[in-house]
Amino acid sequence: MRTALTIVGARPQFIKAAVVSRALRAQPGVREVLVHTGQHYDDNMSRVFFEELEIPEPDYHLGIGGGTHGQNTGRMLEALEEVLLQERPDWVLVYGDTDSTLAGALAAAKLHIPVAHVEAGLRSFNRRMPEEINRVLTDHVSDLLFAPTEVAVRNLLREGIPSEKIHLVGDVMYDAALYYGEKAERESQVLRRLGLVPKGYVLATLHRAENTDDPERLRVVLQALAQVNKEVPVVLPVHPRTRKRAEAFGLDHLLGEVLAIEPVGYLDMVMLEKNARVIATDSGGVQKEAFFHRVPCVTLREETEWVELVELGWNRLCPPRDPASIVDYLLHDWTGGEATPYGTGHAGSAIAAHLLPGLGGSGGEL
């Protein structure tokens, strides 16, 4: 029996890991150990997602979260090292670009355990973003890099990473959109519960420090959403960081001018995304999910890792400098071009096939 150890800590990672875990657990002779760092630790950000995504309970729950980037990464490194020494896995899988990703990759690399990075090669080229630091460092200590797009492959090659380490597999989030989109249609009641009609509302998400920790940027976004809400209902699942900062900056009254709700589970979020007229977000994952469901997206950032979406016309960058520009984008309808830059929806099985030789299985090149 060979062992793959999966490290997750944040909601987007739960979704990605669910896809790969399903493929790995279908293989004989492969054991997966699931480690949850605790980076997202409330029920709506963790437990509910595991239930809805049909992910087994974590074998280890480290309970680390709520601190600064340095505190989180350091504590995770220490705790993960203990787990890795106990389990001695054949592979460590890390996902995306969070503190959990970097801590897992560093802990494994220093113990000479092979690291596989799912969603490798993304670049915003903005080193002020903690996520950019995490993803660059993780890519350079990983042994297998699973790139979702051709652009990601080119980024890795440009940085001197050997081509034999890089595999273009497509995007596991597209796998998830196809699989869980159908499940959401069957099980989610969020539209009825909130009194929403399909294509009759704007969905917004806001959580990045660059927007929430800057009182002026946060004011601009919340004022814009409040103004849009006068013409089209705005649904805003409020991230704990956003609510805390809004209260600290005296902006929480603006939350009362939109339909501000608690964070929702994954299936409800999928339904809200699929049926929105347009989405405003600073999340990387939500940008892609909007595209998968062919919903226009306004990205409240200076740049995006998902440049394909901008080129196709489905995504428009709108840095939060003044409310009027955000309002203008959100109230004008548009659609983009057709393309499939993220694969065919079989990224999970492709990743499992590349890992299986090292896990004693019969996988190989697809």
Polypeptide structure, described:
With 366 residues, this protein is of the alpha/beta class. It folds into 2 domains: 2-171 and 343-355, Rossmann fold; 189-331, 3-Layer(aba) Sandwich (Rossmann fold). Helices cover 46% and strands 14% of the residues. It has 17 helices and 13 strands. The protein has helices at 11-25, 47-52, 69-87, 99-110, 130-141, 150-158, 172-187, 190-194, 209-212, 215-228, 240-248, 252-255, 266-275, 284-292, 307-312, 323-331, 347-355; strands spanning 2-8, 30-36, 60-61, 91-95, 115-118, 144-147, 166-168, 202-205, 234-237, 259-261, 278-281, 297-299, 315-317. A 7-stranded parallel beta sheet has the order 3-2-1-4-5-6-7, sandwiched between helices. A 6-stranded parallel beta sheet has the order 10-9-8-11-12-13, sandwiched between helices. Strand 6, helix 6 (150-158) and strand 7 (166-168) form a beta-alpha-beta unit. The longest helix is centred in the first third of the chain and has 19 residues, at 69-87. The model has no long low-confidence stretch (mean pLDDT 93). One of its GO terms (molecular function) is isomerase activity. It comes from Thermus scotoductus. Keywords: Isomerase. Belongs to the UDP-N-acetylglucosamine 2-epimerase family. Pfam families: Epimerase_2.
